Amino acid sequence: MDGAREHVTMPESSDNAKKSETDASKYDNNSHTTRFREKWKIGRPWLCCETAICADGHKFESMFCALCDKWSVGNNHVVWTKVGCTSIPLDVITRHEESTQHQSFVSAELNKSSQINAISRELDTKEAKALIDAQKVLYFLVQHNLPHTTLFKPLVDLCVELGATNLSYLKAKNAQYTSTRIVYEFMQCQADTVEEDVRQRVQNSEVYGLMMDEYTDVSSRKHLALVMKYVDKGAS
């Protein structure tokens, strides 16, 4: 028709089409080849992925390395730490994982972990020895009919002063194993140990006798006394 303009959409040139496709693939991480897979984290505890939004509204994913971020202080290594890696394919992760710098950071982390574990094991051993020695101190007081609740802490302090270094580990930063409550817990542990030993001996004995009697103390509390006699390896 005269005077009318027909709108015709011109086909996009091949160069422009390639550019548009490249720009789209830069942000289109929902495609099969560029989307981050959670299964890639298996065996890679250092790997993490974050999703961000550009100014034009496109979403994109960035991968970070926790080890490189931790150990690259003072280095010029920016990608994977301060700035995430936006190239998502798995082979990029593999190349980073096998890089010399990443391997050095892995070695540093393993060395630090081994040192911490060694210190922890050493502290656990010293504390265990301290608890065993504390039980010996308490057993000495009970065996000699001494007031254990009042003399336990002074006797422990005296032993430390005389060179019993193991007992010094009873006093940690957040706890001190010399209180009255701890003394009663130690006594209960010893009582349970003795009771279990006697029970095993009685069960293994072919002949035993049991006598029970009830009595009341000065505070009118009732108690049940048990006396047991058994044959242990041919001797009563």
From TrEMBL:
Region (Disordered) location: 1-29
UniProt feature, compositional bias: Basic and acidic residues: 1-26
Highest rank taxon of the organism: Eukaryota
C17orf113 probable zinc finger domain span: 59-112
Protein source organism: Dreissena polymorpha
Lineage summary: Eukaryota, Metazoa, Spiralia, Lophotrochozoa, Mollusca
Name under which the protein is recorded: C17orf113 probable zinc finger domain-containing protein
PANTHER family: DUF4371 DOMAIN-CONTAINING PROTEIN, RAS-ASSOCIATING DOMAIN-CONTAINING PROTEIN
